[in-house]
Amino acid sequence: MCLMRFTKMHGAGNDYVYVDCFAENLDHCDITELAKSISHRHFGVGGDGLILIRPSDVADARMQMLNADGSESEMCGNGIRCVAKYVYDHGIAQKEQLKIESGGCVLDLSLAIGSDGKVEAVTVDMGEPILEAPKVPTSIIESGKVVDYEIEIDGHKLAVTCVSMGNPHCVIFVPEATDELVLGLGPKIETDPRFPNRTNIEFVEIISKDEVRQRTWERGSGETWACGTGASAVCVAGVLTGKTNRKILNHLLGGDLTLQWSETNGHVMMTGGAVEVFSGEWNA
Ligand SMILES: N[C@H](CCC[C@H](N)C(=O)O)C(=O)O
């Protein structure tokens, strides 16, 4: 039995259950089981996963993120904006520039404060993408970058671009991001043996050099309404394939994100909203 307060938050409709571990002690909880049960949309609170906001020795807070299937990810772009909002709005660190640790890295975040004195939007320095195939990781090629590389999955020929933003992504530009692709092929790509750690998948429609539309099949959670690391990977893939400019507006199912891949330092900057929805007590 696990008893704790939780807060439901979302970034562009990518919703997670957040637990403030500055206040709650989860030492006695099996967090893998907790992530599965609390995320369940019928038997639990409901969400794309569980995010623990933990104290950090090197930053203002540490984010630990678990998918709805209980697996852990290194990074979560929409989640880290919500963690920043929580840390500021709940007085853990009331600074407009925050540092948050995730997956062994420390990320810099800039907060935009609304007229109610609460965080409205957050810009995250997502760092440099990792493109070397074995480091993404993917075994599609032995070394070098996988850019618009044709592979065959389940009888479909797909041109894939593989990018790690701390977690693995496979970006596929398509004329239309249909259910057949996202829901049909997404899970097959996720578990294809050429992605040894599984992968997140982005199906992307190009609207113009500056604007795209994305649907996401996430490793461990299925289709989500947005994915911040995925949107960052799409920004990088758009430049590598010559399809988009370095700055794009990305329309996701639950909202928009702005991405920019800097030519000067190679970092991807992501800006988007963060929303607190409700709080409650879990006692299952
Ligand atoms: N939705 C998240 C990414 C979760 C990725 C997770 N599904 C993984 O296993 O890497 C985001 O906004 O970046």
From TrEMBL:
It holds the Pfam family DAP_epimerase. Gene3D superfamilies: Diaminopimelate Epimerase, Chain A, domain 1. It is an enzyme of class 5 (isomerase). InterPro entries: DAP_epimerase_AS, DAP_epimerase_DapF. It is found in: Cytoplasm. Signal peptide: none annotated. The record marks 169, 218 as: Could be important to modulate the pK values of the two catalytic cysteine residues. Pathway: Amino-acid biosynthesis; L-lysine biosynthesis via DAP pathway; DL-2,6-diaminopimelate from LL-2,6-diaminopimelate: step 1/1. Its EC number is 5.1.1.7. Transmembrane segments: none annotated. One of its GO terms (cellular component) is cytosol. Keywords: Amino-acid biosynthesis, Cytoplasm, Isomerase, Lysine biosynthesis. It comes from the Bacteria. It catalyses: (2S,6S)-2,6-diaminopimelate = meso-2,6-diaminopimelate. Homodimer. Belongs to the diaminopimelate epimerase family. Catalyzes the stereoinversion of LL-2,6-diaminopimelate (L,L-DAP) to meso-diaminopimelate (meso-DAP), a precursor of L-lysine and an essential component of the bacterial peptidoglycan. This is Diaminopimelate epimerase. It comes from Rhodopirellula maiorica SM1. The lineage of its organism: Bacteria, Pseudomonadati, Planctomycetota, Planctomycetia, Pirellulales.
